[in-house]
Amino acid sequence: MSESTLRLPAEWEPQAAVLIAWPHADTDWAERLEAVESTYVALSAAVTRFQPLIIVVADAQLRAHVTAKLQSASADLARIRFVELPYDDTWLRDSGPITLRDSQAFQLTDFRFTGWGGKFGAEQDDALVAGLVEAGVFGKAAHKRIDWALEGGGIESDGAGTVLTTWRCLTQRHPEQSREEMSAILRNSLHAARILWLDYGYLEGDDTDAHIDTLARFAPGDRIVYQSCDDASDVHHDELQRMGEELAALRTTEGKPYTLYPLPWAQPVMDEGRRLAASYANYLIVNGAVLVPAYGDAADAEAARIIGEAHPGRVVVQVPCRPLIWQNGSLHCITMQLPEGLFA
To answer: pLDDT-derived band of residue 283, with 50, 70 and 90 as boundaries?
Structure first.
């Protein structure tokens, strides 16, 4: 493997598997475990229609419980691999490996995970990548620990050297560093040619400090899918309008504007007076399909249509995600894709 030829693949490139961790009674899901498990079952059944799935479980008892649930949902168990490891929570987009690759080799980039800037305990989650490596999940792939806080949900890659991120998130993680300093760290650690920053965009109920995967996503063919808000009375309207203007001002490496796909706005979802972050931008791309969050809202169908249009040639599968937003995340946040060839 040559360090100089590594790159961060785009999510729409061929995948070997998707990685998740199953919620259980000792995670923050305990209060609504049955509801959130229904989402994990639907997700697992959807993923295994198209490719393998790796499920991290806390112990053999949880493995047996999950197996029974997935059998009853007709998930393809032949495409599922279980790994027993301890974990604090199940947001593997942020605690899982960020995998770089060249033509033949892979690097599991293991950034420091701080529980979104120290908001939650994260000692076990920060050790998750090392645990997966020790368990032999990734074969001969190199493991590189980087002592700098970054979550996978905080970056978007087009696979060709451009990474998109948000200033709101990374300045919270590293308040002592300038944008130029952070851009250099991102370029070096992710082998990126350039870093694009958004200054605007956030969602109430999101405790990630505006992860990019809740706001704007690269799609093939120089497209960007993003969460918009057309309700002028909503607190998010002005901020997301400004974010849309920022996206319109971005240029590709050829100097052309991106083709933008604004997503519809779900009606506010409240829980005990707290607004939850129902973003349609938090979708997951898998081989031959795109899995789209559904919230039981009138905008669900239109969001799925637009995301499908931005990812032509893929089956669109809606996954019920209302239980996920109770814990301030959605579909993309609980998953991490692994590039094709990783297990060869």
So the answer is: very high
